[in-house]
């Protein structure tokens, strides 16, 4: 889950060392009584409706919540920011299984998606950034200009990827995150 990887990674410099992960888990446990819930998408509507005052989430989901709040026009105004310490950058990817029955068609579909006019329409619809620079002139100006969707260089420089983990380390992270969620 995004929250697990984020919460257990950045506070210790994205280290996968057991002691660092344990320290991160204990740090999050300390604020556990102040947290309403852990969920990967419930916060979208709760933020838009004003039922939750703070959430950690995917930028695209938070933009969706902000847009819903604005459309509802009920006085809920959402600000989205990346903490000064930085944040996990997540990348949507298309992958073709090694044993795909029609890999040529899969490649054609990916090539189709990467056409500037196609991916521009996808970004306009989803509010998610894309990695095709030639699409920006074709996109809605408010999406390209939104510093949440396309952060300025100084903010982007603080974004990081969680290092890959082997199965044993992933299990360790999962156990620690479960202990955070359950408060045990």
From TrEMBL:
The keyword Transport applies. It comes from the Bacteria. It is found in: Periplasm. SUPFAM superfamilies: Periplasmic binding protein-like II. One of its GO terms (cellular component) is periplasmic space. The keyword Signal applies. Pfam families: SBP_bac_8 (PF13416). GO terms for molecular function: polyamine binding. Keywords: Periplasm, Signal, Transport. One of its GO terms (biological process) is polyamine transport. Its main location: periplasm. This is Spermidine/putrescine-binding periplasmic protein. It comes from Magnetospirillum fulvum MGU-K5.
């Amino acid at each position: 889950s995004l929250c697990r990887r984020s919460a257990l990674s950045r506070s210790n410099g994205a280290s996968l060392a057991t002691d660092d992960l344990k320290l991160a888990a204990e740090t999050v446990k300390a604020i556990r009584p102040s947290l309403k819930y852990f969920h990967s998408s419930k916060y979208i509507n709760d933020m838009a409706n004003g039922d939750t005052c703070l959430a950690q989430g995917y930028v695209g989901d938070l933009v969706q919540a902000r847009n819903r709040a604005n459309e509802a026009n009920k006085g809920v105004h959402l600000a989205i920011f990346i903490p000064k310490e930085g944040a996990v950058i997540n990348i949507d990817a298309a992958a073709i299984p090694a044993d795909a029955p029609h890999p040529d068609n899969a490649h054609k579909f990916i090539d189709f998606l990467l056409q500037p006019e196609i991916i521009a329409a996808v970004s306009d619809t989803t509010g998610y950034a894309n990695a095709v620079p030639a699409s920006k002139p074709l996109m809605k100006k408010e999406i390209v200009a939104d510093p949440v969707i396309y952060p300025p260089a100084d903010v982007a420089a603080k974004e990081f990827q969680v290092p890959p983990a082997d199965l044993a380390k992933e299990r360790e992270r999962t156990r620690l995150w479960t202990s955070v969620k359950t408060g045990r």
